[in-house]
Amino acid sequence: LVFTFIARVVRLNDPEYQQAFLRLAQGPLVLVATLELGRFFLLKLSLNAKLMHLFHTAPLAILSYAWLLSRLFQFPYIYNQRRLAGRGRNVTAVLMRPLLTVLRITWFTLSLVFIFYRPGFSISTMLAGLGIGGMAIALASQDTLKNVFGSLMILGDKPFIVGQRILTNGFDGVVAAEA
Fold first, then answer.
1. Over the stretch 134-144, which tens digit does the pLDDT of each residue have?
2. Rounded distance, CA 13 to CA 25, Å?
3. Nearest residue to 108 (alpha-carbon basis) of 75, 68, 147
4. What percent of the chain has pLDDT over 70?
5. d(CA 53, CA 42)
6. Cβ neighbourhood burial of 67 (10 Å; 0-12, 13-18, 19+)
7. How far apart are CA 87 and CA 20, in angstroms?
8. Which of 15, 18, 85, 97 is most solvent-facing, going by the fewest CB within 10 Å?
9. Spatial separation of the C-alpha atoms in residues 20 and 143, rounded to whole Å
């Protein structure tokens, strides 16, 4: 019901925006609307306070709102990526995708920390555990991280231009344009 209402009210001509909107409407928006309708009807039924407290602090509600906001990040991403590509800054536009991924991972991590904070878990203990876990992952994937950050540095610095001849370590070649 919510999906068909929004689809009729909002007419998006751009296919990329339309696809992002459909992903938003079919998943998290329907879940949030269902949870809010359930909350509304539970309030009207005047159930006991313990059940209402459980419903208000439920991890499902927090995760559904986090999912909804995560999908909303897609719209400024599309806008900025197109704006940068229009200005000829294609490399920066390419780097926006990993930035969006890091932003979403950070958002869901904070949401999970908040879910555990609500019932009374210690945040400092969780953050220490996340720090130790992050360090273990970083040490285990050290070579991969070196390659990723090296690639980002090369893309960010733009040391080569199309048509330039490069001679290094016995290799000789000319930089070609993207196909």
1. 888 888 888 88
2. 16
3. 68
4. 79
5. 11
6. buried
7. 23
8. 15
9. 34
Between 10 and 124, residue with greater pLDDT: 124
Chain-centroid distance of CA 111 in Å reads 12
pTM of the predicted model, to two decimals?
Answer: 0.58
- Partners of residue 86 on adjacent β-strands: none
Would you say 119 and 57 are in contact if contact means Cβ atoms under 8 Å apart? yes
User: 164 Cβ partners below 8 Å, 6+ apart?
Assistant: 174, 175
Q: What is the DSSP string of 126-158?
A: HHHHHHHHHHHHHHHTHHHHHHHHHHHHHHHH-
Alpha helices in 48-122 (DSSP H): 49-56, 59-72, 74-86, 90-117
Tokens of 148: 């990723």
At which residue do the structure tokens 């930035």 appear?
99
Tokens of 8: 């009729």
* 3-class SS of residue 167: strand
Reference 111, options 103, 29, 174; nearest CA is 103
Cα–Cα dist 111/95, whole Å: 25
